[in-house]
Amino acid sequence: MPTEQYHEPPGELPDDVRTFARMCTSLIEEAEAIGWYAQRLALEGDSEAAAIMRDAQDEEFKHFSMDLEFLLRRTPLWRAVAERVLFQSGDITENADAAEEVFEDAPGDDDAPLIPGSDGSLGIGSLKGMQR
Amino acid sequence: MNHLLRELAPITDAGWEELEDEARRQLVASLAARKLVDFSGPRGWQHSATNLGRTETVETSVVEGVAPVRRRVLPLVEPRVPFTLARSELDDVARGAEDADLDDLAQAARRIALAENVAVFNGWDAAGITGITEASPHAPIGLTDDLTACPRHIARAVEVLLSSGVGGPYGLALGPEVYKSVVETTEHGGYPLFDHLRKILDGPLVWAPGVDGGIVLSLRGGDFLFECGQDIAIGYDNHDAENVELYFVESFSFRVATPEAAVALPTTAAKASRKRR
To answer: Which helix (H) or strand (E) covers residue B20, if one does?
Structure first.
């Protein structure tokens, strides 16, 4: 089975890092599929076929969102940046500039947060935003 | 091999997967503080202290005319909860059993989650941690048994926060008993109390073992700082022919940066005043 999702020898990677890589690949594939459906819908003249494609694209939105949420839950630093950019009003690039504070608050590269789970933990990390 | 020594445990990959899945289920349900406060890290097992950015005077100097100060830091605390699993149960997990007896693991997971919640919400003097309710300068608002008054109490807590310049959204940590009562209660017209409170807060209601009554706190960020060294992990201690001894461990510190950003709502105001020092 091809393992192009890995940049390093899979056998040398811990389980949680392999899971992280799989989810990153899945996120990319869902985003690609959304783009492909956008192109197909732009050209499709048959309304019935277009409706099916739109329904399929709706599913990809959901899949992409689930992948992203998983990755953000497992990566607090990424989540902290995302919280300052996603679902914010105003200029996107200005919001991204403001998100730099996340890195400024970090004590230094040596103290930067680890990828959750890479420390042998259960990878729970932040649960902020969870209901109940 | 890292400090958890997991490779020494007589547990198959499938066994570890089952143990971790069950642990995550228990922990995610019970780790209430992480649903409401800022989390930073994990910074690893070797991370030992949180920088407070403050100093204290060193009384004596090695050279006359030199006035030294010493940096103050907050050491991380390491809660550790042991538990025991029967090797026969782990063998059954390897065979594909889906009803293995993992009760001791589940209880230990809930216990370490409780310790984290109590440290964050109520404080842990011996570990140098001041909790959210301890730090709050606001007078507690006592919750009564009459839950129809609950929206007024929550609204008053929100008003107290707004009056202190603390913006929302706000979250509400509720002790298990009060949470159950809130979920069960409907107001006049059948409107669920749970939904009413969520509208007042513009944020979540969280089931929070270790909390007495409730705590309303701001979720705007920057007020309550949980710093994680080692995130919760399962480590190996020892085993014999019958059992495997494992443990949950984590390391963390907690600071309240804005004491005004929370209001305690104990089940009785008298109980709260006894706790406050």
So the answer is: helix B13-30
Q: Which of residues 59-118 of A touch B (CB under 8 A)?
A: 76, 83, 107, 111-114, 116-117
Domain that holds residue A15: 10-108
CB contact under 8 A, A129 and B28: no
Q: Indicate whether A96 belongs to any domain.
A: yes
Q: What is the residue extent of each domain of chain B?
A: 6-53+68-275
Given an 8 Å threshold on Cβ–Cβ distance, is B231 in contact with A126? Answer: no
Cite the beta strand spans of B48-196 per DSSP E.
49-57, 69-75, 80-86, 170-174
Q: Is residue A59 one of the residues assigned to a domain? A: yes
Considering only alpha carbons, which residue of chain B is nearest residue A125?
Answer: B231
How many structural domains does chain A have? 1
CA distance B233 to A59: 35
Please report, in tens digits, the pLDDT of each residue of chain B (277 residues total).
Answer: 789 999 999 999 889 989 999 999 999 999 999 999 999 988 889 999 999 999 999 988 888 888 899 999 999 999 999 999 999 999 999 888 888 899 999 999 999 999 999 999 999 999 999 999 999 999 999 998 888 889 999 999 999 999 999 999 999 999 999 999 999 988 777 788 999 999 999 999 999 999 999 999 999 999 999 999 999 999 999 999 999 999 999 999 999 999 999 999 999 654 444 444 4
Q: How far apart are CA A63 and CA A56, in angstroms?
A: 11
Q: What are phi and psi of A21, to 5 degrees?
A: -65, -40
Q: A19 — contact with chain B (CB < 8 Å)?
A: no
Whether A2 is in a domain gets the answer no
Subunit contact B207:A132, Cβ cutoff 8 A:
yes
| Chain A residues closer than 8 Å to B250 by CB | 121
- Domain B6-53+68-275: give its CATH code: 3.30.2400.30
Q: Compute the nearest-CA separation of A54 from chain B (Å).
A: 33
B244 touches chain A (CB under 8 A): no
Q: Which helix (H) or strand (E) holds B115?
A: helix B103-121
CA distance A86 to A92: 9
B6 → closest Cβ in A117, A120, A128: A120
Is residue A87 a part of any domain in this protein?
Answer: yes
